[in-house]
Amino acid sequence: MRVITKKNILKMIGQLGHISRFQAYRRLKKRYSEIKAKEEAAYRFLPTRPLKIGIVGEIGTMLEPDINFDIVRKLQKMGANVHMSMTITDYLNEDTERGGKEDIKEARKLLTQELGGHGLQSICNTIYYG
C-alpha cells in the first residue's frame, strides 16, 4: 500500500492517468479552485448575522450533511454565521491548526500524542474559538 503525500501525488496521478506531472498539476489546481469557490459560497459570512458559531470536529463528520444532520444550513437559516474549523481545502493544505503557536502548545498539553480523527487539530481549534 502506498501512502499519498503532497510530494508523490503528482507522480502517482501521472502514472495512473498517463498524463504529465504538469497536466496533473493544472487539473488539480483547477479542481482545488472549484472546491474553494464552493466552500466560500457555502460558508460565507453575512454582516446581517450577528451570531458567530465555530464548528469543530472530525473532518468527515463536519463536512458530510447526512452525518451532521445538515447543521451548517440549519444554523444559517436561524441567522448564525457558521465557521468550519476545517474544510477540504484546509485538509489538502494541512493548514488545520487555526490558532497560533500558543494554541498548539496548549493543545499538546491536553493531548500528548496523535489521535485519529484529527484529535490534536480539533483541540487546537476549540482553543482558537474559545
| Integer tally of domains | 2
How are helices and strands ordered from N to C?
HHEHHEHHH
Total DSSP helices: 7
Using DSSP, what is the number of strands?
Answer: 2
**Distance N to C terminus:** 40 Å
Strand coverage percent: 5-15%
> What is the overall silhouette?
globular
Share in helix: 40-55%
Please state the CA-atom Rg, rounded to the nearest Å: 17 Å
The average pLDDT score comes to: 80
- For the largest beta sheet, what order do the strands appear in spatially? 1-2
Main beta sheet: strand number and arrangement? Answer: 2 strands, parallel
Poorly predicted ranges: none
Class derived from helix and strand content:
mainly alpha
Protein architecture, described:
- With 130 residues, this protein is mainly α.
- It has two domains: 1-42; 43-129, no CATH class.
- It contains seven helices and two strands; from the N terminus they run ααβααβααα.
- It has helices at 9-17, 21-42, 59-63, 71-77, 88-93, 101-110, 119-129, and strands at residues 51-55, 80-84.
- Strands 1-2 form a two-stranded parallel sheet.
- Helix 1 (9-17) crosses helix 2 (21-42) and helix 6 (101-110) crosses helix 7 (119-129).
- The longest helix has 22 residues, at 21-42.
